[in-house]
Amino acid sequence: MSWRRVVLTLLTLLSAGVSLIGVTNVAQASPQAPQASQATYGAPKEGAKVILNETSIDGPAITPAYPGDIIAWTGTDAQHHLNLMTSSDGLHYSNKHILPEMSLWRPAIAFIGSLRTVPFEGTLVLAWTGTDAHHTVNLEMISMPSFKVTQKITFWGETSFTAPAVGMLPGDVNSDIYLAWAGTDSAHTLNIIHRTTFDKTQDKKILWGWGSISRPNLYYDLSNDSKGGQLLSWTGFNNRLYFAYSAKNTSNQTYWTMASASPLSMKSAWAPSMIGFTTSTQPSHWLAWTGSGVTSTHALHVMYTQHYPSWSDTNSQATLDETAISGPALAIRSTSGEPQMVIGWTGTDPYHHLNVAIVTAPAA
Fold it and tell me: Which of 51, 272, 277, 326 is the most exposed place for a label (fewest CB within 10 A)?
């Protein structure tokens, strides 16, 4: 099945009546997600790589945007403006746009595609933490491919000490948007706002007891799209990697559940990145992080699983021959065929250039 057909099927299922209301952060056993591939794979391997001419003060954000990908980052200019570029292959980026918005951390992006004939046609959802005195969380809707801002929301009173995360349920004008951030309270408690783009309803939940030392990460779990779930990952105060997911209860309400395997044994000083997708040629769930719990360690690590939410696959972890100044970004390379994994990071070279590479799990 082509990647385009997978997305079309997803949109059809969602338009048939998926409705997410309410949230309960109750920890319970994680359901086993259906797995698209049960082949045997070797350790993750880095493939083609491109070092971009762009530089950043933090890691990048990447989102699939059929027929390619969009990358976002915070520049090294004095004002630290937000930047965007597009790519048809996930590696070579152009069409740069410098936005008037500024931040001290990376932005977060998600893409609501229309699947029409114009490349990159749809809505880019951009989230960032402002440079105002309180570091207020912001959300912006950008019409693509024109890069025209159609809506900006400043969530006054919602503040963070780091970058936010943004995720979505695709459905064109009826899409649902999830905005997550770590608060400025002493526990850096995770907060999530669920907002619909059609009727503009909004629901906020505070996930008490779930705190992060860095930004959280959100990604729509395409491997289990019938449940409409988001993958939420973060780094706790013990530097261990945590992850949770959203699902619906019998009352059709959405709740957030800590996965049974969380936290993982790996450690980092920055946020991890986790994604899930459907593919017949690669494992379904991937995780990437930087370091081993101390800021002096900057090596990039990648791991996959075919048994989510368990991460116990043999020979499924690799340390790449790359270093980063903060956490990496994982995304699907959006193609008309089998999707591939894209990893992006900001290098430890003196200028902190953006890097992107393809990562795969070779058949064993």
Answer: 51
